[in-house]
Design goal:
Radius of gyration: 14 Å
Structural class: alpha+beta
Order of helices and strands: HHEEEHEHH
Length: 136
């Protein structure tokens, strides 16, 4: 697991909800995951406010279960300070990249996949195998 994820304690998370609680504790402010209409092609968005963080998930474009959890994980590990403690100066979108050949985008996707595999590894053998198959 990546050191950034381990440093945030995410290697202990057993669910995406627990991962969100750990990130909220590390950042010292609440984190809410809410559904909203983000427009074509945008499945998730992280916003940092001085008093709270928001992860917006577009339910129309996101399948329930593992896909939605991956979108939340992806927004939590996105650049822009999602795993760094401290207040943000104002509403700050972490990023609106859709360039899948961008190295920063690839790193964020890799970190989100590592987090999802780590979460699944705390479950049953069947869950671990299913997770590894998804991220193969």
């Amino acid at each position: 697991m990546d050191d950034l994820l381990r440093a945030a304690g995410l290697d202990r998370a057993r669910s995406i909800e627990e991962a969100c609680r750990l990130v909220a504790a590390a950042r010292g402010k609440p984190l809410e995951v809410v559904e909203g209409d983000l427009g074509p092609g945008v499945t998730g968005l992280w916003l940092a406010f001085p008093e709270r963080d928001l992860v917006l998930v577009d339910a129309r474009q996101t399948l329930p279960g593992p896909h939605r959890d991956h979108v939340v994980a992806r927004e939590r590990v996105d650049g822009g300070g999602a795993l760094r403690p401290g207040p943000a100066p104002g509403p700050v979108p972490a990023g609106c990249r859709d360039e899948h050949d961008d190295p920063a985008e690839q790193r964020v996707e890799r970190l989100a996949s590592e987090l999802m595999i780590s979460i699944a590894s705390h479950g049953s053998s069947a869950a671990r195998l299913t997770s590894l198959e998804l991220y193969r």
